[in-house]
Every structure is written in structure tokens, then in C-alpha cells.
Amino acid sequence: MSDQGGWLITREPRPAAKFRLYCFPYVGGTSGEFLRWADDLPDVEVWGVVPPGRGERLGEPPIAALSELVGTLVDEVRFQAPFVFFGHSLGATVAFETARVLQANGRPQPEALFVSGHRAPHLPMADEPIHDLPRERFRALVRERYPKPPAELAEDEELYAEILETMRCDLALFETYEHRPGPALDCPIVVASGIDDHWAEADLRPWSRHTKAACRIHMLEGDHFYLPKHSDQVIRIIADTLRVGTPL
Asked: Is 127 inside a domain boundary?
């Protein structure tokens, strides 16, 4: 089921849920994979955020500027309170900036912000940008840096080319992002990262400067791409945080 101009998708509406969980995709990821989390979060209504250029919106031109993406999202989507945000990697940045804009505009804010696989947003990038490289060089680096796509996808040249262009735009969002100082969030921040990721705890602890509330860090099994195989770790953290009624 999709809602609000296709920006949101859910597998199971739960109007009586205690919380709504809005999940923001990572580079090249789709929101549909988050919808399975509802099986282990019975008191939560799980929604995936679907930007243009992916999933059901694959045929739409993707947005390549993060400020434009967040501004359009906030203009077109009403997040139903009480809610929390989750984002991994690029999704962490988009979720964070969305929470900031909601707060600045006096809109309902998330009860908690869950960020995964990303250093604190004010810290410099670690990798050289690749989003504007020529096609074949870009493709080669994507294959080097990211997990191999399913065989059926890699063998469909037309579809794979579309996915690569979405990844290019996603990486443009990620690599051209510039943090602008502003008021800290009112909500707590819960940080998760794989112990084998290239982000050390020293890169994660500074998330605390972006909240007036508590900030907790969880080091989990896996590397930067831990989420598909070890999503149970994150689901457990979300469930434990929400179980007390008021996050943290």
C-alpha cells in the first residue's frame, strides 16, 4: 500500500499502532526491504520512504540534491505522530536532515532518530567522490565498493543501467552534502554501526552534539553492509527503545 503521492509505502497498515517507523533507504537500496520488519515489531506501523527513481518510482527522475529531496519530502508528506525515523548510511543523513527541517518548521518531530552506518554529519567524508565519474569507471568502482547485485539483475543490462543511475544520484546526494550548523534536535539519537565498518566509535560519538537529549551508540556484528543480513540486531534495538513507551 502506498500513500502521499507514492512517497510512503507500507505492507500492513496498523492505525492503532503505538508508533510509526519511517525508514529511509541507503545508496541503491529500496524501502521495501524494511517492510518485513513489521513481523517483529507488532506494535509499530512500518513505512518505507520512497524517493523518486527507485522501487515503485523507478521511472521517475531521481533528485540529486539533498536539500531539494528533503524539502520536497517535507512539503508533500505528513508524518503521523507519534513516530520515529530510521536511516542507514545515506538514509541516516536524509532522516537527520528531515528531522531538522520538521523541527525548524514547527512540525511534529520524531520521538527518536535511529541512524546506522554513518559518521556524525558534521565530520568530513572519508572516500573520494565518484558520482561524477565517466560511466565505465563509475560502474567499475560500484562493483568494487558495493556488494554484487543478484545475477538476474546484473544480466538485465537495461534495468542494471537504471539502477546504476539511481546509485549515481544517491551518491551525488551523499557526496555533495554539506552540513550547516543549526539547533540540536529535541529528540534522542540512537546510533548503530558494524564493528567492521570503517567508521570507528570516535566517528560516531559526535552524533551527541546534534541532540539536546540522550545519544546512545551500539556496535553490531558486521561491516558497513551488515543491515540485510543482520537487521535483527537493529530491530531489537528499536523494539527495546520503544518498549518503554517513551524512547530513551
From this structure: no
Report whether pLDDT(99) > 60: yes
pLDDT digits (tens, 9 = 90+) for 143-200: 877 766 666 666 777 777 877 888 888 888 888 888 899 999 999 999 999 888 887 8
Number of domains in the chain: 1
pTM for the model stands at 0.90
Identify the active-site residue in 88, 118, 210, 224. Answer: 224
2 catalytic, yes or no?
no
- Separation of first and last alpha carbons in the chain: 31
- Residue 26 per-residue DSSP state: -
- 137 lies in some domain: no
Residue 60 near residue 42 (C-beta atoms within 8 A): no
Range of the domain at 213: 2-122+178-243
Catalytic residue check, 89: yes
Catalytic residue among 31, 88, 89, 210: 89
Q: In this structure, are residues 186 and 106 in contact, taking their beta carbons and an 8 Å threshold? A: no
Is the residue at 219 inside a domain?
yes
